[in-house]
Input
Amino acid sequence: MKVLGIESSCDETGVAVFDTETGGMVQRLYSQIERHQEYGGVVPELASRDHVAKAASMTKDILSELGGIGEVDAVAYTRGPGLIGALMVGASIARGIAWALDKPVLGVHHMEGHLLAPMLSDEKPQYPFVALLVSGGHTMLVDVNSPGQYRILGETLDDAVGEAFDKTAKLLGLPYPGGPQLAALADSVESSGFTFPRPMTNRPGLEFSFSGLKTAALNIIQQNQPLTDLVRAEISHAFQRAVVDTLRIKCGRALEHTGYSRLVVAGGVGANIQLRKVLQHMAEQKNARVYFPAIEYCTDNGAMIAYAGALRLIAGHRDDEIYDVLPRWSLQSLPAI
Ligand code: KG4
Ligand code: ZN
Output
């Protein structure tokens, strides 16, 4: 079965076709980042318009490369969570194609896409595993018992990790989204004279809170004006260390709590090199293994939606009658596959 997947929940337009028989994946990705940069964050209306401008032609391209629209056996799209207008674009195109071809169509949960993205790597984790989902909009630890069976172990009470990276980067004068640039600055020095708190690590539980780090960064920045390049790098280093340390402590706890020996890291912040190193080390010490999706599947993409959609479509799931999108949608409400 060839499943077309369309992702348009935020500022990336992703289109992919997954062949369930061969495991082959073809994908196209377009990032709108430059469009939003001058506003310092994603502007929902601009995002919708840009998806309209790109999604249909990207879908056409990928389908003509594969031999035409008739090659599609089923269609999956991101139904939520995300920006309502942006979601509507992918949903409309997906529904249109499915109706025209009289093929099954399914709305996919964006976070399920991220959670299952490591299954697209050569080294696939076995179930069950703990997943750390760290993106610009979400931070959560999830008990993944089997595909479709998710139990949220802990979430952020305020900012997501990626958001904390981006807001702190903005305070340091870096362009949006500053996460990767802050990380590069942090890695340019070996140590730092600054310290940041490790929020919520000194009490039990698996919840997170990252908004305090942004405030701590603001205080340090105000006390160290004018910022030199070295001070900027040292602040980034200390900030990144605090975030990575906090995530390490909570991931370790989640492994102990569930008794699982596999940790999967997904979402854009999963591209962070220090996070990868530190979690790798933590897992080794616990006789556990950590799995990361390929970098191209860490950020938003159509491949993860095609894959998650395919798993459900093969199992007979479809929602041909429903035409809606869900800007808010609980991961735990999904039916098991
Ligand atoms: O998953 P994603 O592409 O989009 C969302 O669904 O949010 O995640 C994007 C987030 C941004 O906040 C970005 O700054 C952050 O991931 N990010 C990073 C790195 N690469 C991307 N944060 C820290 N270090 C990185 N290397
Ligand atoms: Zn995402």
User: Anything to note?
Assistant: The chain has a mean pLDDT of 96. The longest helix spans residues 229-258. Residues 127-292 form a domain with the Nucleotidyltransferase; domain 5 fold (CATH 3.30.420.40). The chain is about 40% helix and 20% strand.
